[in-house]
Amino acid sequence: MRSRRLWLSLAWLTLGGGLTITAGPMPLEADSTPPPPPDEPDLVPQLATQAEVSPPPPRDEEIPPDKAALPVPTQLRLLSATQESVRLAWQFTWPGGGSSEPNEASRVLAHDDRANHYFLIIYVHGDDEKFHRVQRDQRECELTGLKTHSLYEIRVKALVGGRSTPPSPPINVSTDVGQPGQPVITNVSCYDTGALSLEWERPSDFDKSVDYYRVFYRPTDQAVFEHVTVPSGTKETSMRYHLRPLVGRKHYVIKICAATRSIYNPNRTWLGEASKEVRVYLPESQCLGPEHGQAGELSIGMVLGAVGALVLLALACVCYVIWKRHLKSAYYEIDDLPRVVVPMGEPQWENEPGLEGAKPGSILVENLEEHVALLHADSDFGFTKEYEEIQTFSAQETQACHLQCSHPDNKCKNRYLNIVAYDHSRVVLSQASGQRKTSDYINANYIDGYRKYNAYIGTQGPLEDTCEAFWRMVWEQNVFVIVMITNLSERGRRKCDMYWPKDDAGCSYGPFEVHLEHEKVMSNYTLRKLKLRHLKLRKKKCASGERDVLQFHYTSWPDHGVPAHPLPVLSFIKKSSESNPPDGGPIIVHCSAGVGRTGTYIAIHALLEQIRDQGQFNAFGFLKHIRKQRNHLVQTEEQYIFIHDAILEALRSGFTEIKSIDITPYIEDIVQNEEMKLQKQLQLITSFEPAEFHCTSAHKSCNVSKNRDSEIVPIESARVVLAPKPGLEGSDYINASWLHGYHRLKEFIITQHPTEDTKHEFWRMLWDHNVQTIVLLSSMEDLTEFPIFWPILDEEFDLETFRVRFIEKATHEGHSTLDFVLSSCQDDYELTVRVILCSGWPHNVKQLTEAFEVLTLVQEWHLEYQNGPMVVLDAMGGTEAATFCALTTLCQQLETEDALDVYQVAKLYHDNRPGVWKSKADILFMYKAMEALIASSHIANPVSSTVNSPAAVAILSPEPVESAPDHDTHHDGEDAIPTNIALGNGDLNGISRHLRSHSDSLANGSVKMTRVGSDSSESSSRRHSLPPVNDVESGLALEACPKPANGIVASLPNDTQHHNHHHHHDNRHRNSSEEDVEDDEDDERNSETAALTASA
Fold first, then answer.
1. Of 594, 628, 651, which residue sits at a domain end?
2. What is the β-pairing status of strands 481-484 and 546-554?
């Protein structure tokens, strides 16, 4: 590719292409800018000349290339450089070591003076590579049209008759600095007799530095400026200078230029554009007004008049003070905001020593996996020891005062009596006139981040009476991002009061008004955009009385516990922290008490910043440091362990979300490095290997016969629980697992095809969990192996508390539907259920985009009943069903965020139902399918979400969707495979961000789907992987993973090799809560009844 680019560039040059020549910086206009001082040389603009390149005349005969000797360029060097050009020189040697042409070469070149013999200069800046041709008799050249203060890598090579020498060793050359921008004059005023006080700001645009300023001044009655030179400090952004001596009683015109010295010639200075001119009047004496005459004798009338004027002035002052106090009680001055004095320098905690006898300071990233494994050893003994040391340190060393927190007026403002706000680090609110001194209190503290003081504010969940104080803190601290890590109620206890409005009507909190503009509900967190207005604000200059605030509300983080898996948390931390603008204030982080989950979030984010900057990690030192600022941060040992596991997961996988434009180069990268990257992804995805205690219910003797495949069974934390029958062991068990979707943690139930003995449990599951949509992917050809599990025609299933009755069947192109009604035996409640038969999906699709047609029709039905989960079943409850759920989730993520995260979805699905992914082909199929969807322009509505909203919008406006804070078991442990993946840019996503356009696209239209039967000799316990998708044109299924053909149809490997999973140590459980569901009315349908199948 690179050689092709080179020859294309040479052909362009040969056909007459030229270089763009630009002039150097223009000096100031002669009529407004004086000449430079005599002790400095003139500012000389650098002018470039056009390089004349003419195409060679046509040749009469070909000269064999092997007869032409090639000169070898050497000793490439820089002669001079300006802002936009560099002059180079070089030497060359001929074969044999001479500097002159050998006889044979002279004869060949003399034989044909039209031989293509010249030197080619190659200069590269970043990703921009350019070429310049020089005739054979030249030993110098000038490159023009370059960027100012930019580094170029330059090489030279010789070309003779289509042959070229290797390039010379490269040299790095930098162009000279450019002109600085305009300073901004902020104040010009009279300072003293014959002196003006000038203040200005440094230009925002400059190279390297601003070395000095020139202040130009002239009276308005003169045409020529005079000037003085004012030196500038390297770090000074604001300048002040007293201009003297001047003549009084004159108007002056002032303007200022910034200057930067050349990096090649200290005597050459580049003077920037002058600031806007400012006019000012200078009095004659001591900046007074008009001259006063001499005082004469004072009459009695004059004395009385003066006394009366003083009395009136005093009364006016008293009235003004009273009015001002009243005004302050009713309005809020921007200039009166409490200013936080941030300490100078940076917080130092990175080298805080560890435990006695342990290595002091931070842990290198390359040693982190081994370090965490040692801490996990012996039932987490290392973590226990470290956390106890932190607890002891907090109790003994932290002697912080908290008098304001304990004040009788403030005790009612604390949610918990033992969670205090230290006085030295607490957030102090502004005090309105007439209020008590204690009105400045809120239970909140500043917390340091990585090399940044007061990066966060840790606070409790607001109480009903402290919502106004909370929003006052948001306003005064210039907060743009709020991170909420609690639900309003947990386990029947109030954890936080609702401090934002439920709808766009808005709520008032004292002088503040808050409106809910948008809300987006996702499976793990909810994103809200709030409009904050100050109703009693006295605006000054360009200050605004309103502000947009983003609230990131994590809904699946249990109290005193940890999330199910670090991956969603890492994604949540990245997106929330990156939403804070550069000029924004601290990020407010709160849970219920503002210490446990709050401290965990802060620790993970700060330690990730340390790793990115230093390649080191010191959780022990950081936690000791921030506990001096707020008590009990990281409240449990389990949270302390989770911090380490989350950091380790970030190092292993990196940030795995892929933008839609990057999907094709990403797939090409993992396919070309299949064994290294795709195989490593599969190993990381399937690293959790469940222990015996993870599957206790599935392995009970009373339940073993209910499992079709003993290797695909539900783990305890994710299994679907049935309502137990009294006295009947195992009556609460069915081989089914919960899987998360894009909007809910319990959006899907994945299960096996019911057997004759478990079909009643299947219908009980639908009844218990209010299921109204079933997707059937298993084959219906072998009714002995996969029997019909529903009632036929007039048949009914009587299941004690409810009955199942068949309603109708409908046949469509590519699928069929069966409708049933589940009726209660105790009351008139009924539940409508539809079974969508898509047997053979996705094996029977001819093109990858056809796989999404099934997803579309399923969602069109299911979205009419949003209160219940969707059941997806295949033969074993394995790969096909998991792929269906994963693609549905990824489509919704793509539609909302214009990005997708295949790795995260696949890993979380494996952790909930181990065994669903068998080979690399299963993972690659999802990548290829999503690539085909993007390329075929079907993104407009592939899978409709709850609201039609444009893609790539950070905050959307959907209809609210109720999402219960469901919990899953957390699996954290060790990965025996060292991955060496760099943080956020590792093997999983370390590819060039380059979009390659697709030349073909799939045509829209319905495709008839054909059922694929199973081989009758196939064992029921056989584990299926997704087969290769055959190329439609070639009809060949390749064994290796090729690059995608036009990014649409790809041949996937049929790799059914089993991979050993790595041990995933986890002794922690959490209860699986059931989602609340609501009743829906029945749909009115035609009652046409038909036979299901001839075999049935």
1. 651
2. parallel
The continuous run of DSSP H or E covering 1041 comes out as none
CATH no. for residue 580? 3.90.190.10
Is residue 1019 packed enough to be buried (19+ CB in 10 Å), middle (13-18) or exposed (0-12)? Answer: exposed
Range of the domain at 215: 184-282
**Residue 565 · residue 907 · CB < 8 Å:** yes
pLDDT at residue 35, rounded to an integer: 42
Number of domains in the chain: 3
| 190 shares a domain with 170 | no
CATH number of the domain that residue 167 is part of: 2.60.40.10
Give Cα separations from 487 to 457, 501, 525, 554, 597 (angstroms): 19, 15, 10, 8, 12
| pLDDT value of position 616 | 92
pLDDT in tens, 153-165: 888 888 777 677 7
179 or 995, which is more confident? 179
| Confidence at residue 196, expressed as pLDDT on a 0 to 100 scale | 86
Helix residue ranges, H only, 232-271? none
* Cβ neighbours of residue 786 closer than 8 Å, sequence gap 6 or more: 753, 778, 779, 780, 875
- Point out the domain boundary residue: 237, 267, 282: 282
Do 223 and 256 lie in a common domain?
yes
* Per-residue pLDDT tens digits for 670-725: 888 777 788 999 999 999 999 999 999 999 999 999 999 999 999 999 999 999 99
User: Could you say which of 141, 257, 405, 591 is catalytic?
Assistant: 591
pLDDT at 26: 40
Are 520 and 492 spatial neighbours (Cβ–Cβ below 8 Å)? no
Is residue 257 among the annotated active site residues? no
Overall average pLDDT of the 733-760 stretch: 95
CA 347 to chain centre: 26
CA atoms of 803 and 825, how far apart (whole Å) = 7
Residue 640 within a domain: yes
Same domain, 162 and 245: no
